[in-house]
Specification:
The protein starts with a strand and ends in a 12-residue tail after the last strand. Strands 1, 2, 3, 4, 5, 6 and 7 form a seven-stranded mixed β-sheet that branches. 16% of the residues lie in helices and 40% in strands. It is an alpha/beta fold. It has three helices and seven strands.
């Protein structure tokens, strides 16, 4: 399921977000809403992707974000011929959103 930036901005309660590290400096965002994941999309409907983590965090700091983590899944086991693991090998790191001036929100 997708949610546009404009729809996200209208949410009354802040929600947790996950910034996915997809590739060398390519990021995508999902929102954790009611036990499900919603892909954050541009207002055109295209999935929001960024090659600049700082600018992405600046955007998120203007939206109703309860918490944010950076998630990266490693392809190491596959690259060295290890068998698939039973568990998820995702690494999650907490992110701190930059402070924004209230005047810039209007």
């Amino acid at each position: 399921m997708k949610m546009t930036i404009a729809e996200f901005a209208k949410l009354e309660a802040p929600v947790p977000v996950v910034v996915h590290s997809l590739d060398m400096a390519l990021y995508q965002v999902t929102l954790q809403i009611d036990g499900g994941e919603h892909l954050l999309a541009e207002d055109s409907g295209r999935p929001l992707r960024s090659r600049n983590l700082v600018s992405l965090l600046e955007l998120l700091s203007r939206l109703p974000v309860a918490s944010a983590v950076l998630r990266q899944r490693s392809a190491y086991d596959e690259m060295v011929g290890q068998p698939l693991r039973d568990g998820d090998n995702a690494l999650e790191l907490p992110l701190v959103l930059p402070e924004v001036e209230q005047a810039s929100l209007h």
